[in-house]
TrEMBL record:
GO biological process, one term: methylation
Protein name, as recorded: Probable precorrin-6y methyltransferase CobLa [first part]
Keyword terms of this UniProt record: Methyltransferase, Transferase
Cross-referenced InterPro entries: 4pyrrol_Methylase_sf
Its EC number(s): 2.1.1.132
An example molecular function term from Gene Ontology annotations: precorrin-6Y C5,15-methyltransferase (decarboxylating) activity
Source species, domain of life: Bacteria
Class of this enzyme: transferase
Alphabetical list of SUPFAM superfamilies matching this protein: Tetrapyrrole methylase
Amino acid sequence: MLPAVQGLSPDGADLHVVASGDPLLHGIGSTLIRLFGHDNVTVFAARVRGDVGVRPDGLERV
């Protein structure tokens, strides 16, 4: 997959990637940051089942 990713967006055009799981933990997010730099990658995390029961302050709901 790495050769295909390295050839993406050479002209600076926007590129959008949809990933499942945690893209920054052994996923495509880490690869994109390594290739294009931290300032050129934005990750929008979706809510997952595990964090639905957690309050914004990090405490579990009871």
